[in-house]
Amino acid sequence: MQEILTEFLETEITDQEYYDGVIHFIYSSNIRCGEYECNQFVVKKMDLLNFIIFEEYVIDKKREIHHSFSASKSKLLKAINEYAKKQGFIIRSFDWAN
Predict the structure, then answer these.
(1) Model-level pTM?
(2) Per-residue pLDDT at 33
């Protein structure tokens, strides 16, 4: 899981705008379930507290999912915010997103 999480962070949390989009999706209590499509990965919100992150490819007009992992909201937020802080991004709070 750690290897895929690291790849997700390095690929998707590359600037403030991308960070803001992902973090808003995770924090938003108005989005009960759904998917946030990043550049290479998809963040799937199963409910308000559980997420699946996976790489998605379309091959021969068929959706294929590779390298997935699940994470709780708190663990995912912690990993993303720690990585974003190291990159020098402004760390967003729940209040900012809602």
Answers:
(1) 0.90
(2) 95
